[in-house]
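I have been asked to look over a protein record a colleague put together. Alongside the sequence sits a line of tokens, each denoting a local backbone shape. Please read both lines and tell me whether the tokens look consistent with the sequence. Take the sequence as given and treat only the tokens as open to question. I have pasted the whole thing underneath without changing anything:
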Amino acid sequence: MAKPKTSDQKKARGPLGCLRRIVRFTFFAVFGYFLTCTFLLVAYRFVDPPITTVHIQRMVEGLGPGVEFSYAPVPIEAIDEDVQHAVVASEDARFYDHNGLDWVEIGTAREQASRRGTSPRGASTITQQLVKNLFLTTHRSWIRKGVEVPLAYLADLILPKERILALYLNVVEWGPGVFGIEEAARYHYGVSAGSLSRNQAARLAVCLPSPRDRRPQNMGASARRIERRMRQMGW
């Protein structure tokens, strides 16, 4: 004869028990995700990512008729220094000083938004953009931002600044189906990443916020501003 269920057993199968299982599953899923990202970041100190989540996203969305996926990472030594400097000047001027997030730039963006009565402009660092490309997607949401922040701190802790910049230049999107600065240089200018001129580097850098819509050939005025900023930063 079956024993009657105790009150503890009934609770375990009731709504409270279900909630506990959901919380436990969520905890282990989040822990597993961050643990996997940690292992990958350690690996990416030494090897280039074979693929990223944004690469997969673009493939799922479709690149467009006649557009092919191209991705060919190269070592930082094969990337012209003007490209590295232009991207830092354009995207993250305090890249070498912050630890993953630029709270000074975030504060400035909030102050400007408050004065104008608008939403704050983006103040993502190169490190944030790197982890977004590696492990997240381009879809905007508070959940994505919430995951991006600890990943940015984690990446800055594990990876040297030069490696963060190299990975970013190599995985980020530079045009329809074009990933990595080597492919971008050949796609837009027919040269290698090590042969780009200073002006070409600046033109490519200002395309990064919207690489599928902007073309470096149309970025003359913005590129000149980036070149002035590079000179001000001692480059």
Remarks:
- DSSP finds eleven helices and three strands in the chain.
- The CA atoms of residues 74 and 92 lie 22 Å apart.
